[in-house]
Amino acid sequence: MNDDSGNQDGSRIIIRQASVSDAEVLAILRYNLRSSIDRVSEDEASFVERCMLWMQERLQHSNLWMCWIAEREQTAVGNLWAQLIEKIPNPTSEPEYHLYFTNFYVRNNCRGIGIGSRLFESALTWAQTKNAHVAILWPTERSVSFYLRHGFSSSADLMELKLTGRKQ
User: Total structural domains in the chain?
Assistant: First the structure.
């Protein structure tokens, strides 16, 4: 999907599905996102190389992973990843996929002009073609209002157990 709408400063923003050739810039965006919210334990070059390989594999061979990239003047300014999560077959009319949104990031200098909303709408359009039942994500404190504006609600029935550091 190409979307060539302009933004407030007259620059053109393009939202498109990411390809294997985008893996390096997507890995850099991933590093920028995660290093902005937590202390890193891996140097940037090592992380980008490792993450790039992971992303190349998913972008090339997986029909369960999808990524959208936002570009301004041929420079990546944001991205959003989504994973279809298969459910066990169900004899009812309930769809047999969940959708997991992750790694949603827009560069600081490009926020507030609708890029995130456009990335999100592209992902939701794709999800509807895949017959996903429900979308889940783990928001940052700062992003909760964005997701509420886009129709998400807090769920009382979703539970979480952190397995790292758990004592047996």
Answer: 1
